Amino acid sequence: MFRLMKNEWKKIGIPVLLTLIVVTVAACTMTATIYPDYSLTYTLDAWEVGTEYLSLLYPLFVVLPVCWNLHQERKNNFLVYVQPRVPMRKYLWVKWMVYAISAFCIITIPYILSAVTALRIDPHLEALNMGNRIFENTYSEYPVVYAVTLSVFRGLIGVLVMTMGFFLAMYCENIFVVLTGPFLYTILENFLLAILGVPQYRLVTAFDPNCLSPEVITTMSFVAGPSLLAAVITLLAIYFSKVKKEKVVAVGEIGLDYYWDKEADVQERQRYWFTRQMEL
Asked: What is the C-alpha to C-alpha distance for residues 125 and 38, in angstroms, rounded to an integer?
């Protein structure tokens, strides 16, 4: 499994690292430069002000660097090439794990480093908006704990959003839908739940709980948005895999390749899938 993970990282390593660097630099720079235009109550306020854009754009940051790869492999029939050599479930599971780790780092690391940046600057503070934040005691007394905990939670939401892109990449032909679908979902979900009068249950509220008054934030505010997204992902998977299942329309050249694949277990899998292909 480690070898498979290493191979998957080689495919997406460069775009993931570039995205991580760009997002981190942007978050730290904005945290260190935007705050003078705002009235700050706590030092960590500079962090919230400087990273507001991430609450809107993070679905793009976690999907674009990774999900293109799965879509490309499926489009080029690379998954068909892999199937006789590695069990497909194992291959996709390893691929998802590498994608998930990448998405988690793309969100968590920039947030933590920009929080450190905020704590190292010395902004002018004004006691104006006290009592206007959830978990305010932790926010003011233990800012590192607050920032790290919220950053990790945001990273997990990023993994969930990336998972939606992962399933779209498995079944959708349109690369635009694959790469922007999760982002468009967050925009649409945000709009609909606001119209329905329950903005505290939006995914963006779970990602950034201080976007609303603390009086309306409950435990469900952190659970509802991610749970709804998980339900949508499940429904998409059922629809594409069961309802709109692709049918085989033709079979090209098939056979057994023992020249390059000499391992007994690989040859056994080749025989299994050759038999399945013959049965079609």
From this structure: 10
CA angle 37, 42, 45 (to 5 degrees): 50
Distance, CA of 166 to CA of 218 (rounded, Å):
30
What span, in angstroms and rounded, lies between the C-alpha atoms of 11 and 6?
A: 9
CA dist 188 and 104 (Å) reads 23
Q: Report residue 128: phi and psi, to 5°.
A: -105, -45
Say how many C-beta atoms besides its own lie within 10 A of residue 171's C-beta: 18
Measured distance CA(17)–CA(14) in Å, rounded: 5
In the three-class reduction of DSSP (H, G, I as helix; E, B as strand; rest coil), residue 127 is classed as coil
Q: How confident is the model at residue 16 (pLDDT cuts 50, 70, 90)?
A: very high
Q: Which residues pair with 40 in a beta bridge?
A: 125
Residues 186, 37 contacting (CB under 8 angstroms): no
Provide the 8-state DSSP code for 201. G
- Residue pair 110/23 in contact (Cβ under 8 Å)? The answer is yes
- The predicted model scores a pTM of 0.81
Place of tokens 């480690």: 2
Min mean pLDDT across 68-72, 95-99, 129-133 is at: 129-133
Are residues 92 and 189 in contact, defined by beta-carbon separation less than 8 angstroms? no
- The DSSP letter of residue 22 is H
Distance CA 107, CA 114 (A): 11
Q: What is the pLDDT of residues 83-101, one digit of tens each?
A: 667 777 888 888 999 999 9
The per-residue DSSP string of 35-75 comes to GGGS-BSSTTHHHHHHTHHHHHHHHHHHHHHHHHHHHHHHH
Diameter of the chain by CA atoms? 75
